[in-house]
Design a protein that fits this description.
alpha+beta, four-stranded mixed β-sheet, three-stranded antiparallel β-sheet, 9 helices, 13 strands, 20% strand, globular
């Protein structure tokens, strides 16, 4: 979800493709340069602290996982922050539904990821917000089922590795976790590495990610909660699975400096 950490972070929410529906807007901010820099620093600090807490807290209590299926109703409003002005939604697509989450991503993603250095000069990546509407009810697995599907991969030879299909246990051995594979059960392995798996769930070509999301779709689901951000960075983020035909993109708008600064101020009040 590799280049720098900030590039990866925005790529996690990026989309492929297109040049459609972008209105030109005045991107100049009415705030002073010092005010903009101060708000961006505050939000970058906030984001960094959240990531540190998330990466250090990877334990799951299996007995407390919810068994309720997750649903997004038809005609729901979704938003997405992207580094590209694209309305083409294919494959796994990260979105937010709650207003508080939408404000948070609008504030944090551009601040965390927009600045990069080229030739000794600072450059700023544009950030775009996609406004979408669901055309039908979307259903996803429960918290417990999401973990169970990952646990199943430990013993099922469904992960493509070259010309073979291997189990999750085989994969963990190959990437340096042979000691855990030897002493832990499938459930113990799944619970231990589920959070780590979710940190890279945005990598489209990772073999274990492909196997996992294929199993989710085989069960008839077309959306899944983003357990990487849920409860850490945001409250209820989603991943759309092959969203073409289930989502209508209403607009793709380039965020102005004022849009981002306003969201940052709102975030600091939450």
């Amino acid at each position: 979800m590799t280049n720098s950490k900030t590039d990866d972070f925005l790529a996690h929410y990026g989309v492929k493709g297109m040049k459609w529906g972008v209105r030109k807007k005045d991107t100049r901010s009415t705030e002073t340069s010092q005010q903009r820099k101060a708000s961006a620093r505050a939000v970058r600090k906030f984001g960094g602290e959240v990531f540190d807490r998330r990466f250090s807290d990877t334990k799951l209590d299996y007995n407390k996982l919810s068994t309720a299926k997750e649903v997004i109703n038809a005609n729901s409003n979704l938003k997405r922050i992207s580094s590209r002005d694209s309305s083409v939604l294919k494959g796994r697509t990260y979105v937010s539904q709650l207003k508080t989450d939408q404000t948070l991503y609008r504030a944090v993603l551009p601040a965390q990821s927009s600045v990069f250095v080229r030739g000794g000069k600072k450059n700023y990546k544009a950030a775009y917000e996609l406004d979408m509407t669901t055309l039908t009810k979307l259903t996803g697995p429960s918290e417990k089922e999401r973990v169970d599907i990952f646990i199943e991969l430990m013993s099922e030879p469904s992960i493509k590795w070259g010309r073979k299909e291997i189990t999750g246990r085989d994969l963990l051995k190959r990437v340096g976790y042979a000691a855990d594979v030897k002493k832990l059960t499938d459930q113990e392995l799944g619970l231990k590495y589920y959070a780590e798996f979710n940190q890279t769930a945005g990598a489209e070509k990772a073999p274990i990610n492909t196997a996992y999301f294929n199993k989710v779709k085989e069960r008839g689901y077309n959306v899944i909660k983003d357990d990487n951000d849920r409860g850490y960075l945001s409250k209820s983020p989603w991943i759309l699975l092959d969203p073409e035909g289930t989502i209508r993109v209403n607009s793709v708008t380039r965020l102005t400096a004022d849009d981002i600064n306003k969201a940052q101020r709102e975030l600091m009040k939450m």
